């Protein structure tokens, strides 16, 4: 072939490549399922085959189901139930997922001086908030379960990957951190195993994003207005995020109203035995790691704004939005302009 022919062929090839990649349509796959005690919504995007996107979305949901079987406090055959039934008798060998979440839970329990406490299982079951048996317990029932700091009685052995309890008067409940871990793990699976670079996962208010939005630029994530939390079209605040997570703990997510009109919600203060009452309606944490954001949003809600700000100021790369029960919104400095 002559030089000019080579050149023409190369040009044609280049044109074909550019043209075809420009024309590959942006596809998406969406899934919704009820897992981990909440509604999980996944939407992922990519210029890849529909089969790949579908397989990725299905695999992410399968991972959520696997984690539910590990962390559920209600499934009698979950790994968590097994640990609760046996760890006071002898060390229990646990899965890598369980070990990772327990280790991080103990870190946040100590860091927050028990505001986030993974050992409130019995108090949480006593209130039954979110179940049809929700009721205000008596003082006699609450009294033995408060002020315990039982997280100090959870012993982990990294080499053997075991957990044991040094007393038998508590149970673990990982409801305030497991969804965050699940969000991180689903994202990891999508990005590492399926090369997904764009997506949005919502685990009942735990939102995690993958990369930028499908049409470029950041994702806009709304934080619910406590006057109308279900009205997702009119949030109290919209934050723009790229490849990050926003996790909200609020008093409107799971609650019941007693006959006298008092609202009882599902975030409990281990010192009082009652739903935390620090004047906050919600706390949202914005950062990279959804597991950390989940634990911290619960801790911050229990601590109240002032103490929560003091705690967060000791950590790097964490921002927060506080909405008080009057609807007043305040944020940490990193949120300004977002
Ligand atoms: P949500 O589950 O609505 O996202 P949270 O992350 O704040 O909200 O978790 C609340 C759940 O965590 C409760 O339903 C209960 O299972 C558990 N929990 C309640 N109070 C505490 C607490 N102080 N520390 C740790 N876990 C808690
Ligand atoms: Mg939480």
Folded structure, characterized:
- This protein is α+β, with helices and mostly antiparallel strands and 338 residues long.
- 35% of the residues lie in helices and 23% in strands.
- It is built from 9 helices and 15 strands.
- It starts with a helix and ends in a 7-residue tail after the last strand.
- Bound molecules: adenosine-5'-diphosphate and magnesium ion (MG).
- Residues 176, 249, 294-295, 297-298 line the site of magnesium ion (MG).
Concise synopsis of the structure shown:
This protein has 338 residues and is of the alpha+beta class. Helices cover 35% and strands 23% of the residues.
Name its key features.
binds magnesium ion; 8-stranded antiparallel beta sheet; alpha+beta; 3-stranded antiparallel beta sheet; 338 residues; binds adenosine-5'-diphosphate
